[in-house]
Design a protein that fits this description.
Helix content of chain A: 25-40%
Strand content of chain B: under 5%
Number of strands of chain B: 6
CATH architecture of the largest domain in chain A: 3-Layer(aba) Sandwich
Largest sheet of chain A: 6 strands, mixed
Distance between the termini of chain B: 32 Å
Oligomer: heterodimer
Strand order of the largest sheet of chain A: 6-7-8-3-9-10
Largest sheet of chain B: 2 strands, antiparallel
Distance between the termini of chain A: 38 Å
Structural class of chain B: mainly alpha
């Protein structure tokens, strides 16, 4: 069953056709990675799904409901959540406050405290909880934002380059986090350039190129596709 | 609810802070006993401005939306009180009702203005420009109402000279009503309102609502992606701030029994920004202290070197931005807090 379905989605910025009749269906429970060269339209596709951009034409269906006209916050209430490409934490507030703000609409009192503790433990940030989020390392900021995104217990988690700027070890830890979330029933759509991460987590991969779906399949099928190597993986592996 | 008097959004916590608070409050309560009526009335004048400073602290310091037009709400409520009381008098406690209605009118105006700004996604410097334009437009409009045709009932708007002769606040009392002229009576009322508003804002800012307001200041996109309709939160904050600025306007009108268009002019609009920036815009206590100190200094300078007072304000703002961008009072409070913590650690 499809959790997210994009139908003939188009987005123009002036004369630039950034998203060109994209059809994409995400199955419940899968980890789906979006890859492609810079400028392929991956982040724009995320912003269309989140309601930050509005499509010129086409439809976005979430759990069977057409959400194309909904505001961003209403889409979040339906069960979407996101971690942005540039870590979008509340830099001037403590790690604990960041998580409290993310959790407070669903939990109160002792339950809220317990949830904060559970998330801090999941993210490995217990000893950093009093630190100002802006002082965390880049990788820790990425994890904190993932924590804020998953605190909403979304049905679909969107991750825009979750391992950007991370060391190989941090990338692997992030992959394990994503796999644990998926094991708990969360569907994941991730934009990623790091092929080690994609190999680690992806059930299916979609390649975007010039705003269109260029190829789709398992990671092995994508890596074996010479056309994909020509436009993207050849550069990524270079 | 009272445990929210302390929290990450407000400086000052623990027995030491609240002990000092009780001491200052006690001194403020006793102050009229040791002072003359004129000086007490002058202190009321200082207190009156703290409400507009707190309104700016809420909208700008906590919410991140720089409003240059708090004086618009100040003026609307001030004129509103004047029009109501000149027309309906002060019998049966009407002045108290007029205070509430005038503040409500300012808040309603903020609902309309704020709706178009926040639901129209106006943010950043443009919010400052729009709010400044509104207050200057109101000032220009009121300044050209000198003719006799500009009246609402018995209340002449009176153009640049402003409106005067509205009755002071009057509390109905068995025997004879209590008239609160600008001395001891008004002092205790304004002090009571100030303490109430300060404590209520502390509770508000340390609540889940306050958390969202601060989150919007830090990163509006992230706040929205946590499921918060940030436009509603911004609008509610703006309306609360407008009501506080309106309260300031009514109390100012009550204090001096006059209100003029210049109260919505450029200088009037700029001064609260300086008080709040110098004190520490992101903290209520720093805002209160900063506003009172700067106002006292400004008044002293106006008396002893009038032409330099506004220049001094400008210099003070520049120095604050350069030396302590988060505010001089807040910087000092944080520094004292660090010293106290170090001292406690050594003692332990």
């Amino acid at each position: 069953m499809s959790l997210l379905e994009l139908r003939k989605l188009n987005k123009h910025f002036g004369g630039l056709h950034v998203t060109n009749s994209v059809d994409l269906a995400l199955q419940v429970g899968e980890i789906h990675c979006l890859i492609g060269p810079n400028g392929a339209g991956k982040s724009t596709l995320f912003r269309l799904i989140l309601g930050e951009h509005h499509p010129g034409s086409g439809d976005i269906l979430f759990a069977g409901e057409n959400i194309t006209a909904l505001k961003s916050f209403a889409r979040i209430h339906r069960g979407l959540s996101v971690k942005f490409q540039v870590p979008g934490v509340f830099k001037g507030l403590s790690v604990r406050q960041n998580l409290e703000i993310a959790l407070q609409s669903r939990h109160r009192g002792a339950e809220l405290e317990a949830e904060i503790g559970r998330l801090l433990s999941f993210l490995g940030l217990q000893s950093e909880q009093a630190q100002i989020a802006g002082n965390l390392s880049h990788g820790q900021k990425q994890w904190l934002e993932i924590g804020m995104a998953v605190s909403l217990k979304p049905r679909l988690l969107l991750l825009d380059e979750p391992t950007a700027g991370m060391s190989p070890e941090e990338t692997h830890v992030t992959g394990e986090m994503v796999q644990r979330l998926n094991a708990d029933g969360m569907t994941v759509l991730a934009i990623e350039h790091d092929m080690a991460f994609v190999r680690q987590v992806a059930h299916r991969v979609t390649v975007l190129h010039l705003g269109q779906v260029f190829a789709q399949g398992s990671i092995d099928e994508i890596v074996a596709d010479e056309r994909v190597a020509a436009i993207y993986l050849g550069q990524a592996h270079a | 609810m009272f445990r929210r008097l302390e929290g990450p959004q407000t400086a000052g916590r623990g027995p030491a802070f609240w002990g000092l608070f009780a001491l200052v409050l006690g001194a403020a309560l006793a102050y009229p006993l040791f002072s003359d009526g004129y000086t007490v009335g002058n202190t009321v004048y200082f207190f009156v401005w703290v409400f507009i400073a707190l309104s700016l602290c809420l909208i700008w310091g906590y919410g991140g939306s720089l409003s240059f037009g708090q004086t618009a709400f100040f003026g609307i409520a001030g004129y509103g009180y004047g029009i109501l009381t000149i027309n309906f008098g002060s019998a049966y406690g009407f002045t108290l009702l007029a205070l509430v209605i005038a503040v409500a009118i300012a808040a309603l105006f903020a609902v309309l203005l704020g709706y178009f700004m926040f639901f129209g996604r106006i943010a950043g410097v443009f919010l400052g420009i729009v709010t400044l334009a509104v207050t200057l437009m109101l000032e220009r409009f009121m300044a050209q109402t000198a003719g006799p045709e500009w009246r609402i009932g018995a209340a002449r708007l009176n153009g640049f000279n402003g409106m005067s002769a509205m009755p002071p606040l009057t509390i109905p009392w068995p025997g004879e009503p209590i008239v609160l002229f600008a001395d001891v009576g008004l002092y205790y009322l304004v002090l009571g309102l100030l303490v109430f508003v300060y404590l209520a804002l502390r509770i508000l800012m340390n609540s889940s609502f306050g958390n969202v307001i601060v989150a919007i200041r830090e990163n509006p996109e992230r706040a929205e992606m946590l499921g918060y309709d940030i436009r509603k939160y911004q609008l509610i904050t703006f309306v609360i701030g407008a009501a506080l600025a309106g309260l300031s306007g009514v109390l100012y009108t009550v204090w001096g029994q006059y209100i003029t268009p210049s109260s919505m002019g450029m200088t009037a609009a700029a001064l609260p920004l300086i008080w709040v920036a110098v004190g520490g815009r992101s903290d209520l206590t720093s805002t209160v202290i900063g506003t009172l100190v700067v106002l006292a200094a400004f008044q002293a300078l106006t008396i002893y070197g009038s032409q330099y007072a506004l220049v001094f304000m400008g210099v003070l703002l520049v120095l604050t931005v350069l030396i302590a961008p988060n505010g001089l009072v807040l910087g000092l409070m944080n520094w004292l807090g660090r010293i106290a913590a170090r001292f406690t650690q050594r003692a332990g």
